[in-house]
Specification:
The protein is of the alpha+beta class. Strand 3 and strand 4 form a beta hairpin. Helix 1 packs antiparallel against helix 4.
């Protein structure tokens, strides 16, 4: 059994690995927050140079929509990998996954709804 901090750290490591392997680069910063049966992962600096150029095109709305569509498809294709990573880190299955990315800030949010509350080990006092 893990502490909440250990679970969140494992999620951060797994998401960083996922971004590197599936998107071609890792995030500049990442945080995971376990909130009851919800797991929220916030990634900063995830846009590649090509994606940054895409959203600066002469039709920025089209570039933004295309980028969001591609990222959403990639996350959906890799959903089993993400669900396994979350199950390994928390000991709990995933019910649903929600994803969005800001093309202006390069921030990405991935939220998982868990099947139940993960069992947590109490942090040892010093």
């Amino acid at each position: 059994m893990k502490t909440q901090g250990e679970m969140e750290a494992a999620i951060c490591q797994g998401m960083a690995r996922f971004e590197q392997e599936y998107m071609g680069r890792g995030p500049k910063d990442i945080q995971a927050h376990l909130l009851g049966d919800m797991l929220v992962v916030r990634l900063h600096g995830v846009l590649t140079a090509a994606e940054q150029q895409l959203v600066k095109t002469h039709l920025p709305e089209k570039g933004r929509d295309l980028l969001k569509e591609v990222r959403t498809q990639l996350v959906e294709i890799a959903r089993p990998v993400l669900e396994t990573m979350v199950r390994d880190a928390t000991g709990v299955g995933v019910v649903s996954l929600h994803h969005d990315i800001s093309t202006s800030t390069g921030e990405e949010i991935v939220m998982f709804t868990l099947a139940e509350l993960p069992e947590l080990r109490e942090k040892r006092g010093r």
